[in-house]
Amino acid sequence: MSFSADAAETLALRALAWLVGNEELLPVFLGSTGVGEDELRDRAGESEFLASVLDFLMMDDAWVVGFCDATNTPYEDPMKAQAVLSGKAQMHWT
User: Fold this and answer.
1) How many domains does one find in the chain?
2) pTM for this entry
């Protein structure tokens, strides 16, 4: 299944909401991105920021599993959505 840009953004927004609700992981995310809590809402409409949310999530398999299990999302969907948001979905290596 391919992702549309809207579906990719929706999944990334769900991932961001999951991160915000995770008291242990949110400070790690904020520290790694340099974004403050007050900026999250403003940046949530930017495709580049949403791609970075998924980049962060995919840094650890346990985080992917936690997000996907909590939101009933197939495990491969964050990677597919990140590819769309970062423009890599249309890349062909041949």
Assistant:
1) 1
2) 0.88
